[in-house]
Design a protein that fits this description.
37% of the residues lie in helices and 16% in strands. It is of the alpha/beta class. It has a 5-stranded mixed beta sheet, with helices on one face.
Length: 170
């Protein structure tokens, strides 16, 4: 699967020039989401590292929905994932999708690949922790993200264009 990760400001331009099969939108509960010509899944939660009163934390059900979407798309399909800034939620989703498509033991290499693709990415640790539990990775996903550290300060993240999963299936 091809995975394109970006900030919200880049979505329309990418949809105009790239063949996208599905859009995954990760936004705050009160965000306005524009209608799109392409199938879209919207998950609403705050970009928080731990549950906090008055805010909506990502849930295990949301993380499962992200992983299910990755499994449901054709191997040759393209998924565009975005959040508001493209720094935390969408890079976390990319990391989760790549780990789910890969094998246990690849978590550190995938995290390193993410850092190389986006020096600004700071994947949401709560999302990663939930996926770590769901995929039964014993903390290796969270440790790998902690090892790459916080990304460079930025108002917006980089556009990431990845192929994930088994390339022989594509």
């Amino acid at each position: 699967m091809r995975l394109i990760v970006c900030p919200g400001s880049a979505v329309e331009a990418l949809l105009e020039r790239e063949p996208v099969d599905h859009v995954l939108t990760l936004v705050s509960p009160d965000a306005v989401v524009a209608a799109r010509r392409v199938a879209t899944t919207v998950l609403r939660f705050n970009d928080i590292a731990e549950p906090r009163p008055g805010l909506v934390a990502p849930s295990a059900e949301m993380i499962r929905a992200i992983m299910d979407l990755g499994r449901e798309l054709p191997a040759a399909g393209t998924l565009l994932v975005h959040c508001y800034a493209g720094v935390s939620r969408s890079p976390a989703a990319a990391y989760i999708l790549a780990c789910a498509a890969g094998s246990a033991g690849e978590e550190r290499a995938i995290a390193t690949r993410l850092r190389e693709a986006s020096p600004r990415a700071t994947p949401n640790p709560l999302m990663v922790s939930l996926a770590d539990d769901i995929l039964d990775r014993g903390g290796t996903m969270s440790a790998a993200i902690a090892a790459i550290g916080r990304g460079a300060d930025a108002y917006e993240g980089d556009v990431i264009d990845w192929a994930i999963g088994d390339p022989a299936r594509a």
